[in-house]
Automatic annotation (TrEMBL), chain B:
InterPro entries recorded: HotDog_dom_sf (IPR029069), TesB_ACOT8-like_N (IPR049449)
Protein name listed in UniProt: PaaI family thioesterase
A Pfam family reported for this protein in Swiss-Prot or TrEMBL: 4HBT_3
Organism: Myxococcus landrumensis
Classification via CDD domains: PaaI_thioesterase (cd03443)
Length: 136, 152
């Protein structure tokens, strides 16, 4: 957990800039929080967080889930990411992404993720992505 | 318009910027676009988005490469600005779904994006977006996005 947290504090500047926090990990699962902040707002009239920030939250959580699945730090690239926005996010509340790497081959890993605001049965977004290991 | 008037609503601002092409006024009104350094520019007769490079956009410090999320953000912002400025929509369109393909890693430099509205209905718009750095014929990421529009 501590080693994986480095991706949110030191190693990945953009995760740090957004204020992402690693909350929990499993064997192939990562739970990451995006705290609400005024600089993340995409619609100043509603205060709703920009989709781009949610994309970054999902990408970071999915990448962490892949690293946990492989069990060690590997250079990774995102091949694709599909996000469905199920309902608008409530302003003023943090977003939590739960990502699970449900299949990994030698080179390619498959991940799905849900984003919620405290209630997993009422998610904000659902996502699916594929990642590839860079050659070492 | 005098300086003493209250600042315009976003819808009013969009209407003004569609005419005046002072795109900075619109991107300045959106906190996330300001934070990410994403702006709209009119270059050689077309509207492009530029994400100005800053070290906080980096995802992999070893390569170094831009965070995949920042490219997703640029593509999505580019689609939203295209819809706001080229269609009659009155409010910020809501993204329904977004599919991003990451084609090459993004280098530590400015990134450009251009959005094309592939279908615009009364309620839904489909937008295709491409992002590139040095060479426009070698995009680094592309996206297809679906948006819900506010009815005029």
């Amino acid at each position: 957990m501590e080693r994986c947290s480095l991706f949110y504090t030191d190693i990945v500047p953009h995760n740090h800039a957004l204020g992402l926090k690693l909350l929990d990990i499993g064997p192939a699962e990562a739970v990451v929080e995006l705290p609400y902040a005024d600089f993340l707002v995409g619609n100043p009239e509603t205060g709703v967080i920009a989709g781009g920030a949610v994309t970054t939250l999902i990408d970071a959580a999915c990448g962490s889930a892949v690293i946990l699945r492989f069990g060690r730090f590997l250079p990774l690239v995102t091949l694709d990411l599909r996000i469905d926005y199920l309902r608008p996010a409530r302003p003023g509340t943090s977003l939590t992404a739960v990502a699970e790497c449900y299949r990994a081959t030698r080179q390619v890993a498959f991940v799905r993720a849900l984003v919620h605001q405290g209630d997993k049965s009422n998610p904000v977004a659902s996502a699916q992505g594929t990642f590839m290991r860079l050659e070492e | 318009m005098s300086d003493t008037q209250p600042s315009p609503t976003l819808a009013e601002l969009v209407l003004q910027v569609r005419k005046t092409r002072e795109y900075g006024r619109l991107t300045d009104a959106i906190p996330y676009a300001r934070f990410m350094g994403i702006g709209v520019e009119h270059l050689a007769g077309e509207m492009l988005c530029r994400m100005t490079y800053t070290p906080k956009l980096i995802g992999n410090s070893f390569l170094p490469a831009l965070h995949g999320g920042t490219l997703g953000a640029l593509l999505e912002c580019s689609a939203i600005f295209e819809l706001l400025l080229q269609t009659e929509t009155q409010r910020v369109p809501k993204v329904i779904s977004l599919t991003v393909d990451f084609l090459r890693s993004g280098k530590a430099q400015d990134t450009f994006a251009r959005a094309f509205i592939t279908r615009q209905g009364r309620r839904v718009a489909n937008v295709r977006v491409e992002a590139w750095q040095d060479d426009r014929t070698r995009p680094i990421a592309s996206a297809n996005a679906l948006f819900l529009l506010s009815e005029p």
